Amino acid sequence: MHECVINIGTALPKSLKHLTIRDTSFGSQDSPCLTSAPGLVTLEVADCHGWTPLFKSLPSLVAAFINTEYVLKGSSGNSFNGYCGHEQCVVCHGIADFVFLEGLSGATNLELTAEYFMIFRTDIEWCPMFSRLKTLLLSDWCMAQYFHGLVFFLKHSPILERLTLEHCTLSKQWYDTTTETYKPKDKFLVSKHLKAVEINHVKGDKRIHLLLKVLAFHGVYSELINFKEKYTS
């Protein structure tokens, strides 16, 4: 799908196995879109706008690749007061069907890249479990608010084997909420299945030393970590 509108209540055929959605608007002006795709195996969503894309009934999902540069409605990005204005918002009214990450929680391979932490913030607060997730890629957004996004996935991915962190920018927005100290609310160790962590970072990124402290605190030690340095932001 490319440059179209997906309306609320969309049901995709069970025969559909692979879906790519680019430059597409989800939902109408006033309502989000809850999409069902029971036969979907791979999903790619890139540069979409409107409401946050919400997926229900994805029991066959193996891989999902999400890349967005927009602060989407319904993601806490459209309201800094925590109320999105919709009567079925999960945060405001506790309806799990309206959590973006919940629809992706059965994936084995997951990539989440975004320009803003807010896109995934409410979903993280709802705490879905990624019980089948083995490979995971996260971008800079996971560094915000004391590495909240990263720590969430470390805790909620019990069989995670491979983690890639793409830190591609030195933007100040990722420094404002990341301090020189790490004070976790609870202590836990990462998946015992974790075999490798790859950190792709821009040269001169001062967050890396604190990132290593966070990883070590949760049981990810240096022998598992591989660095790849980039020279442009």
UniProtKB/TrEMBL annotation:
Top-rank taxon of the source lineage equals: Eukaryota
Q: Which InterPro entries match?
A: F-box_SCFL_complex_component, LRR_dom_sf
Protein name from the UniProt record: FBD domain-containing protein
Q: What is the lineage of its organism?
A: Eukaryota, Viridiplantae, Streptophyta, Embryophyta, Tracheophyta
